[in-house]
Amino acid sequence: MRYSRQRELITEIIKGRSDHPTADMIYSSAREFEPNISLGTVYRNLKLLTDEREIITLETEDKRLHYDGDTSRHSHFICSKCGKIIDLFKPTKTPDEIEELGLKVIGEKCVYYGQCMDCCNDIAE
User: Which terminal Cβ of the chain has fewer Cβ within 10 Å, N or C?
Assistant: First the structure.
């Protein structure tokens, strides 16, 4: 992948956040440093970074895409009420362990859906 200053900026923004931003959020942050960057440039670079497995893409129930700069092995919990995305770090089988079962792994994504603690507390009150 050829170097791009704008792609580096987008990558830094995503990896510097833990809130799983949308393209619009990334675009807004990028414009603070690069006022002439276009939304199309952000989308093209997000696709490229996803294809190159530099970032992870998550789709919420409302079909909005969110981006995660942490590519380490972990799962996600998405609150179906407020849309909050929470990283879950729990050991699971590695692709090598799965392939020992005679299966071929070509990708992985584990997402749990439900209600976060804040939304559960809102219901209880």
Answer: C
